[in-house]
Fold DUF3078 domain-containing protein.
Amino acid sequence: MRKRFTLGLLALGLPVAAQTAPAALPADSIRYWATHLRTSLNANEALISKNWKSGGTSSLGLSMLFNGTARYQRGHHNWNGEADFLYAGQYTQGEEGGYRKTNDRLYLDTKYGYDLTKKWGLFTALNLLSQFAPGYNYADDGSSTLISDFLAPGYLTSSIGAEYHPSERFNLRLAPVAPRVTIVRDPDRFRVPADTTVYGVRPGRSTFWQVGFQALAQIEQPLGPNADLKVRYVLFIDYARPRPVDNSHRLDLTLTAKVNTWLNVSLGGILLYDYNQDQGFQYSQNLSLGLVFDRNRPANRPKE
């Protein structure tokens, strides 16, 4: 009896760790949507006097970026949407100067997915890639030739397949069924001579249809508290022309670093190979400093 009494006193003297379950969120405050919006206005300039002996010309360049994403996840169902717009131009002083576009991107993507496991799922998607404004090829004598415009070309691709998404920072889509149509508005303005095939579109037509395999990989990787890297790679293999030399590849890379709340430095690049456009690789690179507005609203859905 005395032993039991002593054990009881010891038990009363020991601290008891109370484990409290986290309180459930009210149903009307749960957010299944995660959204992220980033806009920026960047500039670069050079001012040179007319008697500057080292040569050069004054210039002013502006670039505008808009990127918005929305993600929905509830149970096995998910939906992703993205709008990625970029436009940049530069004005150069001098006889052969004037305004020239330096970068242009219009990208829209929407995808519905059904998760089979935590890392794998099925999906169907639709995306559009084009540009906003006319693009020109400038010769050494200062003359210009129109080579592109809004929806000229434009690439509309639908896809059905499997998706690997081990984390919110990386996803890979593999689509064995991917119809793609190349659109060229008013293609005759690009035909010199008149029987030229433009972006795969033959004379007398304004579209070019393909069915193939598409792979799309995206990475959104923070690089410390004030920088992040965004990479998107797209591969398309036309089943009618499956040779490696006929495959198309596009790699978009954007590195952004915040100087403070409103000021950022941005480095962007595009590497492109498309046998319907050119027989060689194309690339575009830009470095800019400017103002940024960044708003991130994560979801707070309960973990399943």
